[in-house]
């Protein structure tokens, strides 16, 4: 007999290429981690201390569909490399950070830009613009044994066949080991944690019926339709 007073929610998982499911604990997202994107958002791209916001684990969605959300008329695509951790800890040394990585995936940080902009003006948190239902479409996780550690390679996004975003993973201001080490100074990282590592320039709006096609060199592709 269960001691739960209500039915517990289902575990959130990401499919793993080759079989299996990766259970998700937390989702950390770094902001403005490509210089060109920082500039297009009106910020100085100099290497200031990194900052993070969070999405909810159940925002991750591997269905291949993105339902256009309510209370917005300006939803933007942001293609990103997602990093999944198999182990964690606190105060992780930089030279040991990659030892904690299980694998990588192509993902999208979908953003209600108008609502995020209002929150910024008012000095409020961003969750209303970032952490809504199914706001993080994600492809299968590829174990690091198959990909190696991804520190360079083309990252791009097409909408209806038109190139919108392009960059290289080596253009990240804060690299994957630095993000892991920095986060571990402020949080106790754990197995199942996911880090979304920022987006290159070219973010723009989508509408219902649009088809987004994302690629990261050495990792694979993700196709998502806006419904």
Question: In summary, what is this structure?
Answer:
One of its GO terms (molecular function) is metal ion binding. The protein has 227 residues and is α+β, with helices and mostly antiparallel strands. The chain has helices at residues 35-40, 113-122, 127-130, 144-147, 176-186, and strands at residues 13-15, 21-23, 27-30, 52-55, 60-61, 65-66, 75-77, 79-85, 101-108, 111-112, 136-137, 142-143, 154-159, 162-168, 194-196, 204-206, 211-216, 220-226.
Q: Mind explaining what this structure looks like?
A:
There is one protein chain. By secondary structure, the chain is of the alpha+beta class. The chain has one domain: Fumarylacetoacetase-like, C-terminal domain (Fumarylacetoacetate hydrolase, domain 2), CATH 3.90.850. It is built from five helices and 18 strands. Strands 4-3-15-8-9-12 form a six-stranded mixed β-sheet. It has a five-stranded mixed β-sheet with strand order 6-18-17-13-14, with no helix packed on it. Strand 1 and strand 2 form a beta hairpin. The chain is globular and about 40 Å long. The termini are far apart. The model has no long low-confidence stretch (mean pLDDT 95).
């Amino acid at each position: 007999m269960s001691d739960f007073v209500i039915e517990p929610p289902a575990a959130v998982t990401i499919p793993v290429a080759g079989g299996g499911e990766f259970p998700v604990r937390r989702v950390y997202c770094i902001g403005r981690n490509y210089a060109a994107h920082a500039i297009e958002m009106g910020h100085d791209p100099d290497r200031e201390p990194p900052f993070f916001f969070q999405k909810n684990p159940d925002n991750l969605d591997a269905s291949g569909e993105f339902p256009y959300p309510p209370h917005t008329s300006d939803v933007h695509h942001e293609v990103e490399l997602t990093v999944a951790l198999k182990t964690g800890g606190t105060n992780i040394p930089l030279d040991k950070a990659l030892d904690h990585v299980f694998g990588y995936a192509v993902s999208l940080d979908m953003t209600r830009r108008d609502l995020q902009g209002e929150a910024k003006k008012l000095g409020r948190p961003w969750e209303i613009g970032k952490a809504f239902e199914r706001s993080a479409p994600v492809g299968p996780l590829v174990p690091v044994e198959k990909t190696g550690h991804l520190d360079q390679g083309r990252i791009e996004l097409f909408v209806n066949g038109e190139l919108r975003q392009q960059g290289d993973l080596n253009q990240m201001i804060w690299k994957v080991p630095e993000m892991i080490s920095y986060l571990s100074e402020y949080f106790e990282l754990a197995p199942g944690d996911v880090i979304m590592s920022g987006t290159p320039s070219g973010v723009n709006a989508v509408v219902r019926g649009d088809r987004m096609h994302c690629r990261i060199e050495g990792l694979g592709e993700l196709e998502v339709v806006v419904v």
